[in-house]
Structure formats: structure tokens, C-alpha cells
Amino acid sequence: MTFRTGSFRLLAVFLIFALLLPLSACGAPVLHTSRVYAMGTLCLLTEELPHGEDGDSSPLFSSLLADAEALLSHKKDGSFADLINALDYAVVGGSDRMLLERLRLAEEIKEKTGGLFSVSVLPITSLWDFESEDPAPPTEEAIFAALAEMEGSALHFENETVTKTGGGIDLGAMGKGYACDVLADALRMKNKNALVSVGGSIAAIGSKANGAWQVGVRDPFSDSQSTVLGTLALTDTFVSTSGSYEKCFTYEGETYHHILDPHTGMPAESDLVSVTVVAGKGTLSDILSTACFLVGSEAAFSLAAEYEAALIAVKADGTLLVSESLRELFAPKGGWEPIYR
Fold this sequence. Notes:
Elements: E1 2-4, E2 13-15, E3 30-38, E4 41-49, H1 58-72, H2 80-87, E5 89-91, H3 98-112, H4 122-125, H5 140-150, E6 154-158, E7 161-165, H6 175-189, E8 194-198, E9 201-205, E10 213-218, E11 228-234, E12 237-243, E13 248-251, E14 254-257, E15 272-279, H7 282-295, H8 297-306, E16 310-315, E17 320-322, E18 330-332, E19 339-340
Parallel strand pairs: 17-19
Antiparallel strand pairs: 1-13, 2-10, 3-4, 4-8, 5-7, 6-7, 8-9, 9-12, 10-11, 11-18, 12-15, 13-14, 15-16, 16-17
């Protein structure tokens, strides 16, 4: 048995930091990078600072990431997910009201995907321990019981109260994008230009003094996280990637990845190995990256188009599919020939 893993949802995006680019002009802004481990992954903030000045945003970065994890993680006592799982309802108000809108979005995309995307998946996600030193797939009996528990699961909304039926809530498929939304709002209020990475989700806030932020999209067929299939030029937008190749293990000759099908309780069978979504909101990009992977290449682009989002999708046979709207923003590397659609 072999096993390989990485930080949760640090799946396919390798940042090409502007720190590596020369800024030799006298008085030009300098780039400062902060690193924090939060939400089960390495988080990075690269921001422009006036030449020779302090005042980086790392304390704010750390604080907001901690707040997002305390709000969203079902493993944190008193979080939204913990409360609704325990009580079947939770009240969301004050500074956390953004969560109501994003949860409504999750339920909407659940309906559009016929239930393939869902946040009511804790009964099955809790069966799969991809962090174990000796991972193995759950038994058929355990999966059957989890699926029965999830039957009829849904979220219901009334003012600031969210009620659940069936199952249990796991916000892992939207949490890092949500954190990017929160961080982007806070940094914009400080008039910051920055690039934020929370695992496989990225927020490009403004642009650098010398142009757009350059972000590399990882080659899903390479074992190296630094090998990219192309780069995106980003300004004031969000990117999330989901793939089947990073968080996985092999047991008795069969490989299991962490993107689960709520209908079967097993890793999803998709013709895609990687989906990168460019969208106007972080939570939207995060949700759609998983949803588009689950529905497969034929339905992914039409689903993304409903939300004015764009895709870079890699099929298992090596075909690279790219939304036409990214033609001027995406630069493929040698050997990759995108099909625009």
C-alpha cells in the first residue's frame, strides 16, 4: 500500500510570486510575503508595501483566517457547522451574515447538479481518513449507513436562522474560498494590492505596480507541485482548483481520491482530473471547482457560464479545455494545446 497526501485542498495552483521578479526602480513598492498555517493548509499573503515602509497586513491575515476557521470548521467547538450539526439549527448574524448568502449559493448549486455537490456530506467525509498513516477505504456497510443518514438532507433558511434536515454539515468544499472573500474585503478596505492563497483558493486583489498578478496552474500529471501547464494573469478576481491527484491513497492496487460522490459515498468517477475556476467571488470559485469536477466535462462549462465563471479543465486523457473568455489571460506552457470553448 502506498500513500501520498498534501495540505487539504492544496490541489493544483502553484503561485508564481512576484517576489521573484526584479523591482529595481528607486522608490518602487516592495513585495512582502506572510505565511500562516490555518484551515488545515499553508496560507500565503503577498502584498505591495511602499518602499522602505513597514505596516504589513500579517496580523490581520492571521486573525481573519483564525476567525474563518472558528466559524466554518465542524471540528471547532461552537462553530456554525458544529452548532447546526448538534442542534439542527444555527443563527448567523452580525459580521458573519455573508455566510448566509454563500450557504444559499451552495444549496442552489446542489440543486443544479442533482445533488452531486452538497455540503451535507459529513456522514461520508468522516468515513474517509486521508490523513491517516495507514489509510483504507471504509466498509460497504459503513457507507450504506452514511448514505441512509444523508437521505433527504437539506438546508432551510428563515431570516438569520439556518435549519438542517438529515446528514451533517462539512464546509470543506467552500471554506477556503469563503476565507478568500473575507480577506479580500478586508484588504480592499485598507486599499491594499495583494495576492492571497488559502490552499487551493486564491484571491487577486488589485494588481502589482508592474502589472497583473501571475498565477501558475499546476500540471496534474506531474509529481512536482512547481510544474505548471500555464499561467493566468489576474486582477481583482478569484481562482480555485480541485483535482483528483493530490489528496489520495492507493490500497490493494486501487487509488482513492478525496472528491466524494454524495450518491455513492465513494470517490467520484469523472472524466476530469483537474478543474480551475476563475470567478467573481472566492466562495463561488471554490464551490464551482468541486461541482464542475463532479458533473464532468460535458456539463462543467455550461454550469460555470450560469455564474459568469471561466474554467481551465484537464481531462484524464490529457485534453486541456479552456473557456474562451480566458484566451487573453491564460498562457499555456509548451506541449499544452488548449481547446477553447
